[in-house]
Amino acid sequence: MLINTKENPQISIIVSTYNSEAWLQKVLWGFNCQTFKDFEVVIADDGSGPKTKELIDSMAGQVCYPIKHVWHEDEGFQKSRILNKAILACQGDYIIMTDGDCIPREDFVEVHYINKELGYFISGGYYMLPMNISKMITKEDIEKQKCFNIQWLKDKGIPKTFKNNKLTTKGFISTLLNMFTPTNASWNGHNSSGWKKDILNVNGFDERMQYGGQDRELGERLFNFGIKSKQLRYSAVCVHLDHKRGYKTPESIEKNLAIRKETRNNKVVWTHYGISK
């Protein structure tokens, strides 16, 4: 369903969601605060009920960017399938992917935009919030960027840890931390971006995969295709709202690990279970 349009946006942002209207609304307010504004939002909806559509219809008249709602029937956790449909719906040449529980900082899209480069994808970071703070964040807190302010978070009970650097570092220091972090620059569903043509060239997500690593497997096929990655976990930042993970099962994890092992060992580039069947 097309809510409104923008001709040839420079960036398309895919936001995945499933029956989580309160969190999705906060995320959409976050994108309304962006310093870089030439983008569209494509919501990849894995079978939500009518309340999600009602929210999107309402928000479309309140935000400064166009929204597309890509939806399919609820058949359990089929995020890979709906993401592939959302990829095809993107009008931009460059795609940012994130989740409907990740509020983007005001420079989120700008950081992805200025760091995009042919032959690369970008791996961003997130700052996990506990449930009590996730619930208390208001539209005003997002507009005034309070939920990214470490002192505001400390006042609400966030402890002092090294991960707080994700919210406090800027410029050279964040670049330094990006360089020396031990975390791999993998494709992360909550915060990554790449060229649409590269994603299509590896046939998108493997739809055999349910919860657990389907985003990483896409990145591994991009690596096999010759695409490199940039680590921006201290520069491209979002705050991750807490939620239950009832769709995580040992069976899905085991199956996905086997597919990822095959992808790495056999240098697989193209999945036969992706966008093009």
Short description:
With 277 residues, the protein is α/β, with parallel strands linked by helices. It has helices spanning 21-32, 50-60, 79-89, 108-115, 131-136, 139-143, 150-155, 165-168, 171-180, 196-201, 214-224, 250-265; strands at 11-17, 39-45, 67-71, 94-99, 102-104, 120-128, 191-195, 228-240.
Protein described:
With 277 residues, this protein is of the alpha/beta class. The chain is built from twelve helices and eight strands. It has a single domain, classed as Spore Coat Polysaccharide Biosynthesis Protein SpsA, Chain A (Alpha-Beta Complex), CATH 3.90.550.10. The protein has an eight-stranded mixed β-sheet with strand order 3-2-1-4-7-6-8-5, with helices on both faces.
CATH architecture: Alpha-Beta Complex
Helix residue percentage: 25-40%
Q: What topology, given as strand order, has the largest sheet?
A: 3-2-1-4-7-6-8-5
* CATH topology annotation: Spore Coat Polysaccharide Biosynthesis Protein SpsA, Chain A
Overall mean pLDDT: 94
User: Treating each run of at least 4 consecutive H or I residues as one helix, how many helices?
Assistant: 12
Strand content: 15-25%
Main pleated-sheet profile: 8 strands, mixed
The value of Rg in angstroms is 18 Å
Number of domains: 1
| Low-pLDDT runs | none
User: CATH superfamily membership, which one?
Assistant: Spore Coat Polysaccharide Biosynthesis Protein SpsA, Chain A
Order of helices and strands: EHEHEHEEHEHHHHHEHHEH
The N- and C-terminal alpha carbons lie at a distance of: 23 Å
